[in-house]
Structures are given as C-alpha cells and as structure tokens.
TrEMBL record:
<dbReference type="GO" id="GO:0050661">
    <property type="term" value="F:NADP binding"/>
</dbReference>
<dbReference type="Pfam" id="PF13450">
    <property type="entry name" value="NAD_binding_8"/>
</dbReference>
<comment type="similarity">
    <text>Belongs to the FAD-binding monooxygenase family.</text>
</comment>
<dbReference type="GO" id="GO:0050660">
    <property type="term" value="F:flavin adenine dinucleotide binding"/>
</dbReference>
<keyword id="KW-0503">Monooxygenase</keyword>
<keyword id="KW-0274">FAD</keyword>
<dbReference type="Pfam" id="PF00743">
    <property type="entry name" value="FMO-like"/>
</dbReference>
<dbReference type="InterPro" id="IPR020946">
    <property type="entry name" value="Flavin_mOase-like"/>
</dbReference>
<protein>
    <submittedName>
        <fullName>Cation diffusion facilitator CzcD-associated flavoprotein CzcO</fullName>
    </submittedName>
</protein>
<keyword id="KW-0560">Oxidoreductase</keyword>
<dbReference type="InterPro" id="IPR051820">
    <property type="entry name" value="FAD-binding_MO"/>
</dbReference>
<keyword id="KW-0285">Flavoprotein</keyword>
<dbReference type="GO" id="GO:0004499">
    <property type="term" value="F:N,N-dimethylaniline monooxygenase activity"/>
</dbReference>
<keyword id="KW-0521">NADP</keyword>
<dbReference type="InterPro" id="IPR036188">
    <property type="entry name" value="FAD/NAD-bd_sf"/>
</dbReference>
Amino acid sequence: MTSPTPVEHLDVLIVGAGLSGIGAAWYLQRDHPQRSFALLEARGATGGTWDLFRYPGIRSDSDLHTFGYEFKPWREEQSIASADRILAYLRETASENHIDSHVRFHHRVLAASWSSAQARWTVEVERGDTGERTTLTCSWLFCAGGYYRYDEGFTPQFEGRDRFPGPIVHPQHWPEDLDTTGRRVVVIGSGATAVTLVPALAATAGHVTMLQRTPSYVMPVPAVDRLGNRLRRLLGEERAHPLIRRMNIAKGQLIWRFAQRHPDRARKLIRWVNTRALPAGYPVDEHFNPPYGPWDQRLCAVPDGDLFRAIRNGSAEVVTDRIVTFTEQGLLLESGRELAADVIVTATGLNLQAFGGIRFTVDGAEVRLPETVAYKGMMLSGVPNLAYAIGYTNSSWTLKIGLLCEHFTRLLTHMDRNGYDACRPEVGDPAMPTRPLLDFGAGYVRRSVDQLPKQGDRMPWLTSMDYRADVRLLRTDDVTDPELHFSRAMTPAAPGAPAAVPA
C-alpha cells in the first residue's frame, strides 16, 4: 500500500502573471509577507498582454506614469511607450521583488471548487502541453487574467474569404515572418489596435488603408510628457513620481468628466482637433465623427498624431464603408469600390472570457456567472474568498488594479485580526436592479455581455469607473459591510452538521 501524495496548499493562488498578477503579488508580499502564494501562468512567459501581442507598433494608449505601478516609477522619456519597454518594466518589477520565483508557467486553471467546511478552494490545474492534471488547494483565489481570451481574437464571418489569395492576419496572432514592405495592406477596424497598426505599417508598406464600418473618436496625445520629465530632472525620480501621477490622474479624470457632462461640446472639441490635424478639405465628418457620444466607447489615442501624419503624407487613408465580399484582388465594398490588397489585417476585436473560463462550484453547486453580482468591483455575490482584478475602461487600467489589491490585503488583515477564515458577499435586497458589469459600448462587450456577472445600482454593488470614488471606497473606507458576511471554518462532526459558524 502507498500513501496518497499530499496536495500542496497555498494561502493565496494568483491566476495570471501579467500586469495585474504581478501587482497583486507585490501588494501581498508587502502587507502579508508571512503568507504563501504562487502565480499560475497558462503561457510560458510573464507579461500577459504585453508578451502576447506582437503586431507592429503595439504600445500603450495610457501614459505610463499612471499605467505603471504606483510603487515603481516609470523612468523612460516617453510616457506613451512601446510594448517591449512595458514588458521590460513589468519583468524588472517581478525580478527585483523576487515575484518571478513564485511564477509557475504552463499552468492553466480549469476548475475550482469551494468547501465551506474547510474554508478552502480545491483547484484543478492542467500543466504543460501534455494535458497532465494536478490539484492544489488555497485559502484565497485571486483571478488576475483580465477579461478576454488569449487563444483567439474575434473575426466576423466575411463572404468570399477563401477567394483572397494573400495573407489574412488577426493582430492577436501576428506572424513573425510577415513582411509588408512595399505591399498594399488593408486594415479592417477602427479601434485602438487599428489606429496603432496603420501608421506603424505605413512607414514601410506600399500603402495602407484603414477600412472601418463605423468611425471612432481619435485624439492626438504627446508621446513625451515634457512637464513630467522636467519634474523628474528637478526633483528626482522618487519625489517626482507621485506628483506626476497625481497630475496625470487629475487630467484624465477632468477630460472624462467633461465628456460625460458636456458630450456635444466634447464632440465639437474633438472634431476641431481632428480638422487641424488632417489635410485641408478632408471629410472629417465621414471618417472621424462617430454616431455615439465621447467615451461611450474608449477614446483612441494616437501619440504625436502619427495616424493623422500618415494620412497627410499619403501613405495611409481611411475608408468608411461596408464589405460585400472578399475578392481575388482585395475587398468589394457596398459603395461599389474595390480595395486592392496584398495583405488583409482583421483588427476586428477581442473575444471576452470571464475568469479565464474557470469552472467554479461552491459546496457542490455550480456558480453561474450571469446570476452573480459584482461586489466593490472585486468579488462575486455568493462566492467566498474569490477576488478578481479588472481595471478601468475610461482610464489607465492599473489605477484600479492598485486600489483593488490594497483593499484585498486590508481585507485579509481584518480577517486575521478577528479569526475569520472566509467572507462571502450576499445581496441584501433580491429586488435590486442590475445591469451589465461592463457598462460600455464596445462591440466586444456587447457580444459577450450575457456571459458576465452583473452590477447593481448602488454601492457596494456598483462597479465604479470613478477613480476618486474608488479611492474612498477601496483605500480609506472600512473593509466591512453589512452585505459582506464573515465566517470561521468548521469540520462537520457528523453528516448534516453545519459547514461554518457565522460571525
């Protein structure tokens, strides 16, 4: 007879070793150095999005003084940075804080089941390419993998796709050996990826066309924060960092609030900026006048107006039309125009996947995500000891991640002091109105909104996109709440005994 292999137990299991996961590990180490933890990464490298995407020109669309971590100054001259620089920053953070030694690569979480009797999760993990399965247990599960699928992007069904003989590429799976030098490239899309790709490709391609069905709001932003760089030289990195960060947060919040309160004035201002950046007589209203209000979808930022510069010099153009079919030469449009192409890029968006597709059960009952409600934007109703990190859609992603991680570690401290093993959010009013978790007009959100949790119409069930409100809620307010219930683990003495003692 042989003894069963003991199952490894960790205090906190962080799923994902990208921007959010590395941040969560840093805060956990700072505030709870005695706790054991690991980061499970399905891929073979840290960095998440910034390691996955390899298309030309990939960069941030937020300044790195706010997109970077509060605890680690951004030291580069450019505040709108390329992916390789962001990736180096993330990996430096992980290395200098010894977080990388806690990462387990090629570990994909398949399922997690909660036991109230033991106050712990049992987590099923697939390791490597062999499909080998292993099991871990943890007291807390922290999902830091974002909200879109890493293994596939979204491409609509296009009529006649098989007729086109050239490469058809999605940016999420950009081939390393794709050479567009001197070739005619059509980029289908109008979002952040498309406006990044077009000027990057236009630098060497024969000609680039951005083909959009619906325009987006596009605004030029400085690639270099000149004031911030002057402050860094005058005050030094450590003293200047919090000041630059506060200034940039305030500026971003001011722009967002102005667009929310005065959408017509914001629309006119954006149009005026676009008109000044484009050639005289350019049909701005045809190609840069969306039918929705500013910030109903994320505003596309172009560093130093590189997209507009490519349009002005003739290396790129924008066409607003609908595709009838792919052809042997390119694309036939509803207007009757045919766009000639050697390469077609489908910058048509993402596929959402909540919590990386993990299957959750609580005391044997399956958790149906659309039936749950988000608590403080970081936990789910009825699900104990599960936290997740989703950042802002109207500002730098990391601003919210930092606040969520701080609140998470404060919650752990409260539980330690009071001897609690578990906490579970529960909606006090079953009749509370709900709406989608991501109250956002982007196509990738609309396609998948029915698969996501809901949010309520009041705190703590409202998923805030307001940084100032979240500072109060997550950083300064008490972690306790009448709708957050604490309990202690209890091993049942006999079948049917209670699973936990309520606090």
